[in-house]
Give the backbone structure.
Amino acid sequence: MASDQVKLIGAWASPFVMRPRIALNLKSVPYEFLQETFGSKSELLLKSNPVHKKIPVLLHADKPVCESNIIVEYIDETWSSSGPSILPSHPYDRAMARFWAAYIDEKWFVSLRSIQTAEGEEEKKAVLAQVDEGTAILEKAFIDCSKGKPFFNGDHIGYLDIAFGCFLGWLRVTELAAGHKLLDETKTPSLSKWADRFCDDPAVKPVMPDTAKLAEFAQKIFAKPQP
Amino acid sequence: MNQEEQIKLLGLWGSPFSKRVEMVLKLKGIPYEYIEEDVYGNKSPMLLKYNPIHKKIPVLIHGGRSIAESLLIVEYIEDTWKTSYPILPQDPYERSIARFWAKYVDQKVMLASWKACWGPEDEREKLVEEAYERLTCLENELGDKQFFGGETIGFVDIAADFIAYWLGIAQEASGVTIMTAEKFPKLQRWSENFVGNNVIKEVLPPKQKLVALFKAQFGNVTSS
């Protein structure tokens, strides 16, 4: 069963798609990457994820698994004897990893994304302050979860590293566009160092998009229409 | 932390989120100390200490450490007490399906159906339409199964407790009809099975008390 064909429907720029890609790399699972064209949804995507019609979708022996963090857990459970564990082993640590991953998606990333739509300097400043607040909370979470080790998950990257680290590309693009550092040595010393280690990880490097390429893509998709 | 340490649960008598945790604890036969939290009044120092990020119930305290967010608490209980009354299937694919639908109920169905009951009059039609769409998705997923979990109550059934019990009460309190036996016969049948379960029925809050609470908290002063 574990050796059946694996396909992943996704897009190079999507942080959510990066999550299962990193997980599959950690488990050394080969897969076929089916790139969606920006602006349209393939028949396969619509058929495989009729409820949300969103990427990523993992197809394992043609059976679809949807929702990025759910896919990561699925990968960890299916290829449990291959590579390192992605979820921590202790139930409490697992709960904490899932808690922070949910916080990142539902609070932190939502405020990061709203920087794009903020109108005027005042609103932008307010949203940036909100993101900063969230990042400070995550700095503390890192210290609590890592317990002195290099990653949220301990000695090697895991579920929470992946859940947060996938946003680093977009975080850097936002920093450039807003002229405001969100992660740096003074504000978030632990996370700053963690970010470099994360991006250097062999499971991450091949799938982390180049910041300049992402910035160019962001320009294209967020370009305001001409009046 | 091990199974022997006493569990404390900070909860709210009327909350479907709080009840999710109680249902699982009772199904698994795990003893716990229940502490009622006055969320509409003052948040207790205990709540603020154990859930500083969201300041919401339910919060589970076990061995001095706390876990927040009802479905995460349910997974924690499942991870710690694996053998008694499993809530999640063993197979990784089945587990991913259960997690997907629990998340769908939590993030899409509950809010849509709640908004349809209490949203502004001029948006009523649109909100009800959205609720119908979401409930139809759920109806199709349930199919002819007794429970979402199959023959026994599982993760998705627990996540959907609001649909089985609170939604009918919200409909009565608000006067808005969304889920009926005609439109959603499978969900209706499932609701009856769910609230009829011997363990579940002991946990559910009293109906009239909930109707009164909903009318007082969410109803319009001018509604008939």
Observations:
- Chain B touches chain A at residues 1, 53, 62, 65, 67-69, 72-73, 75-76, 79-80, 92-93, 95-96, 99-100, 103-104, 137 (CB under 8 Å).
- Chain B has a mean pLDDT of 93.
- The CA atoms of residues 3 and 16 of chain B lie 25 Å apart.
- The beta strands of chain B are 7-11, 32-36, 59-62, 65-68.
